[in-house]
Amino acid sequence: MADRGDARLEKGSTKDRARLTTALAVGALVTLFAVLNLDQVDVNWIVATWSTPLILVIVVSLAIGGGAGYLVGRRRTRRQR
């Protein structure tokens, strides 16, 4: 029976290694994306214009869009009940 436990451990270890490798690859791509998007861009607001790194504009837009999508999805779920 010890052999079965070892087999499970090996299988779990392979799965864990695959997850770690995937996480590192995604992390490297995100880091590369951030480094390549450090150019300053002008953001035009109604009252002023600010110069900020492009990656910051992308991340803030992603956060606002994700939050809005979450709230809309949550509202639809409540309506269906």
Question: What does it look like?
Answer:
- There is one protein chain.
- With 81 residues, this protein is an alpha+beta fold.
- The protein has 2 domains: 36 residues; 43 residues.
- 77% of the residues lie in helices and 12% in strands.
- The chain is built from 2 helices and 2 strands.
- The chain has a two-stranded antiparallel sheet.
- The longest helix has 35 residues.
- It is flat.
Give keywords.
2 domains, 81 residues, single chain, two-stranded antiparallel sheet, alpha+beta, 2 helices
Task: Write a short abstract of this structure.
The chain has 81 residues and is α+β, with helices and mostly antiparallel strands.
- Terminal CA distance reads 49 Å
Hey, roughly how much beta strand do the residues contain?
Answer: 5-15%
Mean pLDDT: 83
Q: Return Rg in Å.
A: 22 Å
**Shape verdict:** flat
Describe the sheet with the most strands. Answer: 2 strands, antiparallel
Individual helix count: 2
Given the helix and strand composition, which structural class is it?
A: alpha+beta
Q: Supply the number of structural domains.
A: 2
Major sheet: order of its strands? 1-2
According to DSSP, the number of beta strands is 2
Helix percentage range: over 70%
Question: Which helices and strands, and how do they pair?
Answer:
Elements: H1 2-36, E1 40-44, E2 49-53, H2 54-80
